[in-house]
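User: Could you check the structure of this?
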Amino acid sequence: MGYETIGFLALFASIVFLIYILVPKKFRYFVLLIASYGLFITISKWLVVFLILTTVSIYFVGIGMDKYNKRYEVEKEGLEKDDRKALKAKYNKKKKLLMILGVLFNVILLIVLKYLNLFGEIFNGFFDMCHIDYNIPTLIVLIPLGLSYYTLNAIGYVVDVYRGKYSADRNFLHVALFMSYLPQMFEGPFAKYDELTPQLVEGRDFDYLNMVHGLQLFLFGIFKKIVIADRINIITQEVFTNYNNYSGIVIIGAAILYTIQLYAEFSGIIEMVLGVSEMFGFKLQKNFDKPFFSRTVSEFWRRWHMSFGAWLKEYIFYSVSFSKPITKMSKGLRNKNKNFLSVFIPSTIALFCVWVVCGLWHGCGVKYFVYGMYYFVIMDIGLLIEGLMNKFKNYEKLKNNKAYICFQITRTFILVTIGMLIFRAATLNDSVNMISRFFSGGVTNLVSANVIELSELIVMLLLIAFLVFVDFMHIKYENIREEFVDKRHVVIRWALYLLLILVIFYFGTYGPNYAPVDPVYGQF
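Assistant: Sure, the predicted structure tokens are below.
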């Protein structure tokens, strides 16, 4: 994603914004719908068919579940309590069947389009083990833009309607706009229908403050992506590709840098999405909240990709935790006075399901499954340790000790960095080899090896320090824009905006080794 792509998207968003504020309120959501589908077709062309299929499926499944609700309301009149209960159970069973069909249809679409080759890879490995001379060929499968994102949004809509959180929307265009709202299709954040759609269809008026705040976020997002993340990529790309040439200290440094790169890129693109949406007056879900100040890995994942974490918690963790077999097992353990196990075992089972889904959502290789299992094991051990530590009466006092807090933050960052190394390495075998080389020798000076110039390295380190400083400022100012920037004199504010633009244009192309990089999370 270089200047050309960002420039095109910025121009497109500006034109849509002008048209949006000029047309009457009741037609404004049409502008968003046409623009979203227009850009989607520009990028994915005929693959828009799959987006339409998903949209049609959840629309009719939602309408079908609502019809069962209405039939129950009509037919229950005059019935005795037991008869009403039986009637409700009958319609709940039909609703559940519809919900399962709606979810399965979209999961199968996702599997066919994204994971078909994974199954071929697994079977080919099995054939090799059994010395069977047969290979399933690799298929060339085209994937629509944002497939994994809009599929999970669709599943959330179907499950929420089933649970009675809100009624199905009978306006097909509203559902279509929710599914296709393009800014969030690039890398999220995930959206809830009842939170996003009312904003999209309402028709927001022009607001100067929204426009300024949106531009601030958009510019800072570009800065994080192009100036910081893409510059770090100079080192990480080289070291992860040719790790055998480098010493352990360089590999460790590259793993740390990649963790920062991924944060700068992912949070930067999300801020661009949030910024564009805020210009229109839409508030999307926050996706990052100072993740590197987390004291545990569990806390890190509550602060990183927060909308995805919330989706996994609501639709996977809770669904498993409150399923009949799990609740029955938990109740049985409590009856035997095994209170810790009555919480720990169900949580472990639910957590395992969460990280299987999370790992495979990120990619269709064995590496991604192991990536998920890595975090599952760490978080499950964390649950066990937390349960044991709470038995010590001085633990509450220890948790507030500053030295202990620093230790926890450092430990969490190290564990997360290893996880990100597994995520970034080309294969699982490469990640194992890289970790095994942590204490090996090799090239240690990246400047003398012509990987990066000294001036570029200094700029990169200064930019990382600035990124850490901004996150640290967020501890003092929950909303830096409103509590700090907006309170400055207008001349100072616009001088800061101009300075940010100049930094983007100068340092975004500074140095002979610099090159723009496609978004990592864009592939999902």
